[in-house]
Write a structure and sequence with these properties.
Helices cover 85% and strands 0% of the residues. It has four helices and no strands. It has helices spanning 2-24, 28-52, 56-59, 62-67.
C-alpha cells in the first residue's frame, strides 16, 4: 500500500511540474483562451441537460449555476 501512495505522489509531482512548464510557455491571452475553452467544454453538457430535461431537480439549480 505504501508503494501505491509513493507512485501516486510521484505522478502528482510530475503532473504539476509539466503543467508549470506548459503554463510558463503560454502568454496571458493564451491562458485566458484556454481557461475559457475548458469552462465551455465542462459547462456546455450541463447547459444542454438543463435545456432538455423535464426534471425539476435539474431545473431548480439553473439560476444559481448560470450565475457562477
Amino acid at each position: 500500500m505504501r508503494i501505491d501512495k509513493t507512485i501516486f505522489d510521484k505522478g502528482v509531482e510530475l503532473a504539476k511540474a509539466h503543467a508549470d512548464l506548459v503554463l510558463k510557455g503560454m502568454d496571458t491571452v493564451a491562458i485566458e483562451e484556454w481557461v475559457a475553452n475548458e469552462l465551455e467544454r465542462v459547462t456546455q453538457p450541463l447547459e444542454d441537460e438543463i435545456k432538455t430535461t423535464k426534471s425539476w431537480w435539474v431545473k431548480l439549480p439553473e439560476p444559481m449555476y448560470t450565475s457562477m
